[in-house]
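PROTOCOL LOG
Step 1. Enter all chains and additional molecules of the complex.
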Amino acid sequence: MSDLHGWLLGRLSWDALPFYSAIATVAAGVLVAGVLAAVLFIAATRRWGYLWREWLTSLDHKRIGVMYVVLALVMLVRGVIEGVLLRTQQAVAINNPGFLPPEHFSQLFTTHGTIMIFFMAMPFLTGLINIVVPLQIGARDVRFALLNAISLWLTVAGAGLVMISLVLGRFSTGGWSGYPPYTEPPYQTGVGPDYWIWALTLSSIGATLTGINFATTLYKERAPGMAFMRLPLFAWTALCTSILMIFAMPPLTVATLLLALDRYLGFHFFSNTDGGNLMNYINLFWLFGHPEVYILVLPSFGIFSEVFPTFSAKRLYGYTSLVLATLAITVLSFTVWLHHFFTMGQSAGVNAAFGIATMLIAIPTGVKIYDWMLTMFRGRVRLTVPLIYASLFLMLFVVGGLTGMTLATPPVDFQLHNTTYLVAHFHNMLIPGTLFGLLAGYTYWFPKVFGFRLNEHWGRVAAVCFGLGFLLAFMPLYLLGAAGMPRRLSVIHQSAFAPALWVAEAGAVLLFAAVASLVVQLIVSIRQRDHTRAPLGDPWNGRTLEWASPSPPPAYNFAVLPAVHDRDAFMWLKEQGQAYRAVVQPAPINMPRNTPVALFIGAASFVAAFGLVWHIGWAALGGVLAAVACVVVRSFNRHTHQTVSSAELAAEHNRWVAAVQAAEAVNRDLELDPRNRGRAEPTL
Amino acid sequence: MSPRHLHPGLNHPRSPEAEQAEVGSSVFGFWIFLMSDALVFALLFAVYGTQVHATGSGPHPAQVVNLPSALLQTGLLLASSYTFGLASLALKFKAERPGLASAWLCVTLLLGLAFLGAEVHDLVDLYQRGAAPQRSGFLSALHTLVCMHGLHVATGCLWLLVMLVQIRVMGLASEVTSRLMRLALFWHFLDIIWVGIFTVVYLQGARL
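Step 2. Run joint prediction.
Step 3. Record the structure below.
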């Protein structure tokens, strides 16, 4: 009997169910109820066919992008709730055990970090790049459409593992960076680190493939005339992020796979005995980890570089310097990884070299800050939601940069490392730097994807809550860290820390309110969409090519590829009166057909990873074989494309052009008015 | 055909220009993938380099390196790269006879399988002599580096097999030749990695 059980279910048993802490039970219940509710909703509204045809099997880069962003927003909700739980525990557990057992507290800070980096920020930025970059460079699709979908479903499979760990088993307690030897068998025998390993492996492979895909797309698929120095800044940052993904994700894949070999087969890469060397892991992880910081932040820099000129109605100031700064950051990001472990035994000389390299990054970043400020200078500035995020970013990001300077100084770092000062610093970079940028992009491009604008009022509420919540939640942590409070404490034996911890708790509640406002905003926006429709495609008087198409754009993006004559390609067309031209006989277009292959590969990978986590041999092997079989079978399919006929293209395009020409062009005073249907008055 | 569509590697200039450009972009993407994959090997070499003296209670490199067998494997793999080169030439200049290319690809596949056989034999031998990867950090790194390369060769063999079937089923269609070009890059790439392994693991190991 036990043999059969072991063969069928590996280590899976009743003990895996989450009854070890009330909060874990509730969380699992909420997850199960949420999934059931979603399934019932789709069944009740009979949308399975629609979902399958239009989304799950789609290879359209815009649809794939939307699915990435949906994943990111779902994971954002979980990540923020975990953050609030962590802050609440620290606020109440002063000289008492609080409400979270230490083991559960450790799981929570591990999942919080893992989710926010790999399953919130990464899918969010990948989604926005997917939606926008092909449109911005005047392409019809990404270079490898199927590979793009495979990347998505691998990421979803990784996120699925993290989610299912709520219901079955426990997650790692080793932090988001998973340092061995603590994540090795003698110290964590359960499935936690295995969940962490395979979730990261799947998402890192997905991200590598995304990087390859978008680098190829940006090098090879630009519209005629789109020279490199005419690329919109967001496309530049997407290129640099892709390059970083190509070079920085493999170290993570190698680190997690070697850790897996240690855990599963008893190898000695990072063990304490027989020649293992944990410093190899630390180096591999941060060879990935530091460039990862720039993978996360560069796309946001790109978004801000689009938002500032659009909402200031000015050309971007210092385009060339922004491009050079982006490239400089890309290169420098590979030269600083050691500053994550100044205290781990290198000589003072090595630390000094990496400290100086770290400080150098502040130079190109500072250049960017000035360029953005000068873009606003004497512009026609409209303080809409994206610009509120951008302005908050300008002020708060500088604070984070300055505290980064202190941490980059090795002697200071010896005092501050592993304190809440560090926690405050990286949240200061990632919330204003990454998240605010992504939310600005979400608000900015939402009407492009769905054809209606997001509700402005709730967007402002969310933005202000995010700004204030961030300040309240993390400024006290700087003080506490400087006063010597270590990070990741589940119980605090120092009453003097209480006031600052309660201020931080208030900030965490505000951040939760901000996320709730985002949810409300989405619901209100959908219900009131008839007042905010902008199907003509250009609600913000945009400057770049993504606005030169109807909203939502057709699957093939452009009936005729736009010719690019200027850096602000669409603004140039509008100024020359060449935007919105009817076409006579466009060449037919070959577009990829929908296919479920990518979804199957993702599902097979999930089964394989789940089998590996629970030591279920047949699932692990079967999943891998099924994924390989999908690839092989697909390679024999020769009907992967379909043609959109010339007549169809002309009809659809000319209908849109006629609608634009019949519409009233609105000026910027009416930007948020229902009359703004997406045709902008060309001048100020 | 305009020269800007030429890409590094063996071009097949029979197809129309638009198709050429598409193949060029696909090959370009594959070069990028190889760059990323090369990094995986670079990191495994680096890990091996730091652990080569971490022998613990286990054997030293000179005690586990079987130089004659490694030399035989090197010969097999280099020969397979040569025969793949002949297959590529046949694809370009003797396209009317797809059987010729298939024949050279079959020889390549056999050489690849022979290489894998010799490698597995070596690894089993090591295991039986008590030099299993669980013995020390050095042996973990050695087995992982060699097996990672072997896994790539096995993938290449599977890919070769699929391509042989596709040549029979689809003939030398554009997607088939495009895939063969990428497979050729992959195969030669694994050759270069092996030269690194032969040098760093075997030649260096014999003296440590």
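Step 4. Note key features.
Chain A has a mean pLDDT of 94.
DSSP finds 21 helices and two strands in chain A.
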